[in-house]
Design a protein that fits this description.
The termini are far apart. The longest helix has 26 residues. The strands form 2 sheets. The protein has a 3-stranded antiparallel beta sheet. The protein has a 3-stranded parallel beta sheet with strand order 4-5-6. 18% of the residues are buried. It has 2 domains: 38 residues, no CATH class; 125 residues, NAD(P)-binding Rossmann-like Domain (Rossmann fold, 3-Layer(aba) Sandwich), CATH 3.40.50.720. It has 177 residues and is mainly alpha-helical.
């Protein structure tokens, strides 16, 4: 786990309540004894099953992608992986869930808010989470099916699917001023 100042690593896992508590008190992970201190660059190359770059764009690049040991990357930030890195990770067989899919939940919930406001009918938190889970799962599986259908990676599949949806909407509604 990391913040802008650096990260913590423990091969046996981190005590997340203790990490949260330390961060809440100090505003940083630096100086805690809750794991081995690592730089953000080192963190990207640590052995892990899932790597989730969630803060800044351009963190995984052509210069460091070969060092990534994760089996899966789930992009929580916008554009954390450069195109050069994408090619390297795809060649290595790293499964990547692209940003436009992985971090779309906020946009989906904003849509839910708009729909509820229009109808003056409001959902409780449980219903929002239920609908969000349904929408995100549907989007994931549609992207996965598109990747299989066209023999492409998940980022390309997400783009194909997005462009197809816009084209279908234009065809259905027509182009109007």
């Amino acid at each position: 786990m990391s913040d802008v100042g650096g990260g913590l690593y423990n091969a046996n896992g981190l005590d997340m309540p203790a990490v949260r508590s330390y961060y809440a008190e100090h505003g940083t992970l630096e100086g805690s004894a809750l794991g081995d201190e690592v730089t953000n660059a080192e963190l990207l190359a640590l052995p892990c099953d899932v790597l989730a770059p969630c803060a800044m764009e351009g963190q995984i690049t052509g210069k460091n992608a070969n060092q990534v040991k994760a089996k899966m990357i789930v992009e929580g930030a916008n554009g954390p992986t450069t195109p050069d890195a994408d090619d390297i990770l795809n060649d290595k067989g790293v499964f990547l869930v692209p940003d436009i899919l992985a971090n779309a939940g906020g946009v989906v919930v904003s849509y839910f808010e708009w729909v509820q406001d229009l109808q003056a009918f409001f959902w409780d938190q449980e219903e929002v989470y239920r609908q969000l889970q349904r929408a995100m799962a549907r989007s994931y599986y549609a992207t996965e099916a598109t990747a299989e259908e066209y023999g492409v990676d998940m980022r390309t599949a997400a783009q194909i699917l997005a462009i197809k949806r816009v084209a279908d909407a234009l065809e259905t509604r027509g182009i109007y001023p």
